[in-house]
């Protein structure tokens, strides 16, 4: 199968491309702390954006999967001057647009727009930090939701477990 060439505009975020897996921790004032597993896939089709899918699941104390947690999917667009736009959609009725900047292998994003369906939980904003550290993808997410101000929610360390394989469709 032929892998399309990465669009040259994506060079600043090319380090993200591939399949990543790992574990993290989470908590928030309205919930108990927890451990989770995660898989993230950054792909591309040769056009000037990355595709993005993240799946998480609750882990027990032994590290075994208990049940699915969150899922999100979207697109990452590199702009001039190392600026970045990210559009994310969640099956819980939330859509987010993040804006931010790439500096070497560090990405910092904050919500520019949040839209919610009538049945979605209250969520007003987020801040995400991604970085490549010793070959691993480290990330942290701060959230403002359910009457709480922006504060730490989840973070994880992921290892690259595979190259990107394009869809055959």
From TrEMBL:
One of its GO terms (molecular function) is heme binding. It is an enzyme of class 5 (isomerase). PANTHER family: PEROXYNITRITE ISOMERASE THAP4, THAP4 PROTEIN. The keyword Transferase does not apply. This is Peroxynitrite isomerase. Heme b binds at residues 30, 121, 153. Its EC number is 5.99.-.-. Residues 9-160 form the THAP4-like heme-binding domain. CDD domains: lipocalin_heme-bd-THAP4-like (cd07828). InterPro entries: Calycin, Nb(III)_bact/plant, Nitrobindin, THAP4-like_heme-bd. Belongs to the nitrobindin family. SUPFAM superfamilies: Lipocalins (SSF50814). Heme-binding protein able to scavenge peroxynitrite and to protect free L-tyrosine against peroxynitrite-mediated nitration, by acting as a peroxynitrite isomerase that converts peroxynitrite to nitrate. Therefore, this protein likely plays a role in peroxynitrite sensing and in the detoxification of reactive nitrogen and oxygen species (RNS and ROS, respectively). Is able to bind nitric oxide (NO) in vitro, but may act as a sensor of peroxynitrite levels in vivo. It catalyses: peroxynitrite = nitrate. It comes from Planomonospora parontospora. The keyword Zinc does not apply. Keywords: Heme, Iron, Isomerase, Metal-binding. Its cofactor is heme b. A motif (GXWXGXG) lies at residues 18-24. Forms a 10-stranded antiparallel beta-barrel structure able to accommodate a hydrophobic ligand in its interior. In fact, this fold hosts the heme group, which is located in a wide surface cleft. Binds 1 heme b group per subunit, that coordinates a highly solvent-exposed Fe(III) atom. Pathway: Nitrogen metabolism.
